[in-house]
Fold these 4 entries.
Entry 1:
Amino acid sequence: MTRCPVCRSDHVLTRNYAKRVGRTLGTAAGIGAGVSATLKGARIGTQVGWVAGPPGRLVGGLTGAIVGTLLWGVMGGKAGATLGEVVDEHMLDNHQCLRCGHRFSEPSNHLVIDGHFMATPPTEDRSRYADAGYPGDYPEAYA
């Protein structure tokens, strides 16, 4: 659960603006790129529907065109939403506290206090590096 770093409130809104814009643009781009695939899908549908005669060719062609367009639109939308999510989490202040109005990003896995960089303690066991002279020689707190 995300908490506001200023007032420590749990009432935080996740805005996801870039994710929404990315999904919309990705869907539009996917549909645009899918036009040639749509024509190919319609051609294949027409050939498959040939067995059922003229009505089968019509239905097969329309089905192939619709499925081709939807497939490309969904793929483009998913790619755009994924890219937008990365932008939201790493570049924009994606969260807003409903209590104090503060806008902030998710904290990263590093901590900076008064301009001094401090790495967060690792989650894995580093004792095997203690005697090996691992580059960086981890302090005793990490061993």
Note: The chain has a mean pLDDT of 77.
Entry 2:
Amino acid sequence: MKTLIITAAICATAIAVAAQKPYTAPRTPWGHPDLQGTWTTDDARSVPLQRAPEFGDRRLLTDQEYADRKRRDDETRGDVRVAAGTFVGEVGSRTHRHTSLVVEPANGRVPARTAAADQRMAAINKAVNPLLPLTWEDRSLFERCITRGPLASLPTLYGNGLRIVQAPGVVAINHEMIHETRIIPVDGRLSGERFHSYMGY
């Protein structure tokens, strides 16, 4: 009798699994992928921006490399909770396998600045000592709570929340820090066609 019950349970489970439909990603009423919701990049804080050269083009850690990172993250999480609490820290609540936040180019490295960009940075560094500002204009836009710019989605010490809202032809990303919103046209219009802003559109 016991064998019959077990067999019936296995068969019922197999039928239920076979009847399940494959996962379908949610879509908006107008047919676009539905990205809406509240997201955070907190858990990516222990993933380096650039990939270490020894990883080459490999995007994910091996099991051993992941275990090593998780051990370091767990130690850091314990230290931070004692000192500062759960919601402020150098690592998030989970550990990821990614070798870098940059995924393009394939080597996971930020491309070198152009010569013109180097000249601009040299002029800025020569003109202003950030530790000894002459006026309020010498402070960065971030320090003045105006904007973190389009790179605000990169994880930092805290304030990594993002809220995504969609409408036909547009996606809006609102950042927790400074509460600024980046509006991205997805209907073929060029970003910045009509106006420009600190957020790069």
Note: The CA atoms of residues 114 and 120 lie 10 Å apart.
Entry 3:
Amino acid sequence: MIETSQAQARPRQILAIAGSLRRDSFNRRLLQAAAAMAPSGLRITLDDGIGALPLFNEDIELAMSAGGPVRALRERVAAADALLIATPEYNQSIPGVLKNAIDWLSRPAPDRDVLSGKLVAVIGATAGRWGTRLAQAALRQTLFATESIVLPAPPIYLAGGDGAFDAQGALADPSARESLAQLLIFLDRRLPAPDPQNTAELADAYCA
């Protein structure tokens, strides 16, 4: 009974991926804010693995699927209950490093398709005026092709990122914080309740 109770108490695992590799990027800060604001039923962990991925190439796909950063990222995505992706906007679209990661994750080899049916929330921040609207549209289109389940709302198009965060990098804009809180509540409600039969196994795999 004690083990079952502990399993039920485990929060759902959300893997957060920033589309920017810059250490102090607005999108990384946005994900850090999400992790700090997450409801008690969610655990949001930032993933830094996409920068280590090689460019997608079918010639090396078998080797990359057997081990290394590609397989490690696939396993983390598979073990997560949902993904939270924050993307900047580069030339009216998503960064190449983010598209490359999705290309690797979308492949069915060697054992499973890790994006099909995966719940994904999409957000974004930029210093410009348009708040990554075009980038998020492009990302949603790509995720549609992978058969992911993308949350339709509430949207977060954070513009003017220079003024949205304080000197310590924390999200300070009240409107942005409210929108982010609403999205996290919606994400929490969309996820099924933890299954005591497999929650502990998934959490252990996620943390491995």
Note: Confidence is low (pLDDT under 50) at residues 1-7.
Entry 4:
Amino acid sequence: MRNIGEKSPIVVTGAVIVLAAIAGFLDGEKMRHGYTTVRIERGTVRTVVKASGIVNPVLMIEVGSQLCGIISEVLVNFNDVVKAGQVIARVDPEAYIAAVKKASAALKIAKATAELQRAALQRARVAVENARIASKAGEADLAAAQGKQDEAERDVQRNTLLSRTSGQGFPSGFPPQGNQRYRWRIIRT
């Protein structure tokens, strides 16, 4: 048989639970809060309500964008009805404007560099043409100098004095001095 002392903690615990339930039921009307709906007005906050829990939306739609950045303007509010294609927010365009300016500057630099390269190419073509002309002028000067040397050598050969008679070379007293004159026959070859 069981001892009454063993049952007493279980009985006491059950009795406490029953009494607490009865007390809560009887005091339940005092614990009910009433809510009043009023128009929104400006004023000071008189009561602060703190609550914890999770608020779940009735319908959840994810909104995505192909751009990223800081939102500068939101054009709709929570629970507003929106249509397909309607603008709901604007991204701050400053970063994109800066990117366009940077790309524009890079394009201008590339155009200027290309123009400089074209000018350098043109200068190189002119330098090549000047070198060709200088080479042709040098060849012409060489040909002219060679021609003058050949002509001088021919003149030396043509203007050789030949003796009138066989035997003796120059007569005594050559070259002539004073009023003496000699007649020499010059043979051109």
Note: Helices lie at 4-31, 94-158.
